[in-house]
Amino acid sequence: MTTRAVYPGSFDPVTNGHLDMIERGLNVFDHLIVAVAVNADKRCLFTVEERLDLIRRSLGDRPNVAVDTFSGLLIEYMRKRQVRVVLRGLRAISDFEYELQMALMNRRLAPEVETFFMMAGESYSYLSARIVKEIASMGGEVQGLVPPAALEALRRKFGGTR
Amino acid sequence: MTTRAVYPGSFDPVTNGHLDMIERGLNVFDHLIVAVAVNADKRCLFTVEERLDLIRRSLGDRPNVAVDTFSGLLIEYMRKRQVRVVLRGLRAISDFEYELQMALMNRRLAPEVETFFMMAGESYSYLSARIVKEIASMGGEVQGLVPPAALEALRRKFGGTR
Amino acid sequence: MTTRAVYPGSFDPVTNGHLDMIERGLNVFDHLIVAVAVNADKRCLFTVEERLDLIRRSLGDRPNVAVDTFSGLLIEYMRKRQVRVVLRGLRAISDFEYELQMALMNRRLAPEVETFFMMAGESYSYLSARIVKEIASMGGEVQGLVPPAALEALRRKFGGTR
Amino acid sequence: MTTRAVYPGSFDPVTNGHLDMIERGLNVFDHLIVAVAVNADKRCLFTVEERLDLIRRSLGDRPNVAVDTFSGLLIEYMRKRQVRVVLRGLRAISDFEYELQMALMNRRLAPEVETFFMMAGESYSYLSARIVKEIASMGGEVQGLVPPAALEALRRKFGGTR
Amino acid sequence: MTTRAVYPGSFDPVTNGHLDMIERGLNVFDHLIVAVAVNADKRCLFTVEERLDLIRRSLGDRPNVAVDTFSGLLIEYMRKRQVRVVLRGLRAISDFEYELQMALMNRRLAPEVETFFMMAGESYSYLSARIVKEIASMGGEVQGLVPPAALEALRRKFGGTR
Amino acid sequence: MTTRAVYPGSFDPVTNGHLDMIERGLNVFDHLIVAVAVNADKRCLFTVEERLDLIRRSLGDRPNVAVDTFSGLLIEYMRKRQVRVVLRGLRAISDFEYELQMALMNRRLAPEVETFFMMAGESYSYLSARIVKEIASMGGEVQGLVPPAALEALRRKFGGTR
């Protein structure tokens, strides 16, 4: 069978940790949909269009990855796209608890959807889009933490890191 | 591509939590190898043969599941079987830390092997082979926690639960 | 001696997890006061009156449960009501840390007040009023997670889930 | 109704943390049974008789506390004694996970039995019978951590702390 | 060599837990800089000037402690002041995860800067500036949790606790 | 003042994680004593002499590091050596809880002794002497995890890794 998975997130902006998850996911799944959450509540630094653009430019031309957006419940999106596997990264204990809660709730709402977790690589265990933005906003160097396209976009937002 | 995964463990004995993981794994992977660890150090209640037999009788006749044993490093077994996905369950925080350590170490030893985690179902979050044996050894009722074959085997070992 | 306990919370809205705690608390205590926190800071979906009403309609007519409100410090309310036992539920590690901090601080402020914890049932370990509201706001199904009165109220707020 | 609770443990030996739990438990329950686990597997420093004796001498003459032993499953003991409340202390995260597992398993085996937890006082959060024995065995001072009777017994076992 | 360390934080307001860390830090380091973070984003109860003043009045006249402010990245401040040791307190698991993330990120940004952690004393393990403000704002007694200068300042803000 | 610290452990055998801690400790302290615990209870793969030898050969000739052994309570050793700082590494949550318990207990036994923690580097967060021995015993490759001297010693014990 052809296996497809959805890798959902805010990607505000995409980091090297996200890209590592995508690479590793593609070692196992035939096709991956990177699904950017459009969440009215959550304040994002980048617009949905900017976030999609940064992911696309960072991934390059790959036939087995699609980039998409979704709003509302993830499981509704899964059903619409007829994909049954969610892919998520786990970094720390706080991740674990939230992810456990979401996975159990999603299973209750849609028992046919399965969530798979991969542990973040050791170099990415302390990396989050939130901390990248925090450092960049104070003029810190985030090269090596995000792909070049995101680095450039962060510099435009915060006015150059050097 | 055909996806195969190895689901390793001690299975001393197989529990309903293990069976739930196997069922859910088969929703995603084409073929699953349940791999019983033969560990000279670890004291087990059941012999390797008994453990294999209990898994086989509990799974019934399924063409897409194989039951096997392995000794030594899991990644060596993965290489020998040419499988690149390890499947593991996550129940609690203590699980999480140990699994994180093993996953990071295995990735260092064999970067081509990927470990995927599934959260244990809410009914199995407190269930372990260890606690099943502890209860059964004191004459407690473990029906509903293990498949009928394991229930019968535990009763033979500990002399009937009632 | 007649034992009474206060079960405090926001109850925004009452969930089946809360009701389970109340039932189990009544197996041990003669009388329970469900105390709705009136907190100027915290933004709630439902007004205090709505929250009280949902609890009352969900509990039905029970002589050994009272529903009340409190503002300010819980221990001041405990003293005013002359109750010495606080009842709290524990779900996860993050709960644990916050509850530990509050329990130690309350003991310092009022050594005569004792906090008792009950572990949430396995079916409620992933359930919180926050996640119920999040799902309902996106049109997800929350039947089975909240009592009928709360289900109806959530549907009125968010415009029907079906 | 008269409320009774069982406070189970190994008490090898009784510490000031245990005594604090008993005092605080008696503020809420009419009667407490301190139940010493007789566990063939677990290696204890003190015999069951010594452990019982140390508890009795440390508690003094109190009409509302009984000291008893139990073997096998706690819930069978609860049923035999017709008590429905188990009292347990919580110190740290590792406690939390084990206690959660036991509480959920006990509820499955005996839904009528309820487990209540109290957070250990800040002065006892790092105190366990295990660490007391470890320090005493190396000649360290444990005065203030255990009641006088246990202090004396530890000195007899390990040959004086100075 | 003369050892100097920076003890950074919000100090909104300084608590007895902070003062305990400073005392203990001075047992090891020759000189300590208490560095108040000027963070435009974070809403503080006290102004930077008030926070500096409360720390100074609480520490008294000590030649080996300086009180300063910093904005932006901590590591930039460390470099400017030519100090290579950051001192931080650890209270709980949630602290641990955040501190681990910050320490790893800071090491990446400035490998020459080392972060040292001390465990909060048992009496301060549940104490935070946040909970002090919460209690004081509801008229609760915070004497013994903060130094006299901070106590007085909190009373002025919230209108006297007695 | 000249600052000295003791870095205690089992070092069975010394790993690259230990060496990283020693290097980083020397950036802050003038002198470090690596103190190998001689513990009758704990079963070690290497004798005390072998462990000392492996540390010495791995550190090379450094005037500001001494290698020593201690038995019994660490705080007694600290007093005898007149050193007031203990240096410890923190990797994970389970580390954290054990270290917190030991630090609080040591402070009670010897208030003048202070324990400082450093977070393990991201490359060493999953590394322990225990897992190194486990992998080596099954013929796995541990090059890069331990210094050459320890690698050679492990190969002698377990008969070559290839």
How would you characterize this protein structure?
The structure is a homohexamer of 162-residue chains. In chain A, β4 (85-90), α4 and β5 form a beta-alpha-beta unit. The longest helix of chain A is centred in the middle third of the chain and has 17 residues, at 93-109. Chain A has helices at 16-26, 48-59, 74-81, 93-109, 129-137, 148-158, and strands spanning 4-9, 31-37, 65-70, 85-90, 114-119. The first copy, chain A, has 162 residues and is α/β, with parallel strands linked by helices. Chain A has six helices and five strands. The interface between A and C is medium-sized, with 13 and 13 residues.
Which properties best describe this structure?
homohexamer; 162 residues; alpha/beta; three-stranded parallel sheet; two-stranded parallel ribbon; 6 helices; 5 strands; 42% helix; 19% strand
Oligomer status = homohexamer
Strand content of chain A: 15-25%
Enumerate the strands of the largest sheet of chain A in spatial order, edge to edge or round the barrel.
1-2-3
**Rg of chain A, please?**
16 Å
Structural class of chain A, by secondary structure, is alpha/beta
Give the SSE string of chain A: EHEHEHEHEHH
The count of strands of chain A amounts to 5
Instruction: Summarize the amount of helix of chain A as a percent range.
Output: 40-55%
Chain pair sharing the greatest interface: A-B, 26 and 26 residues
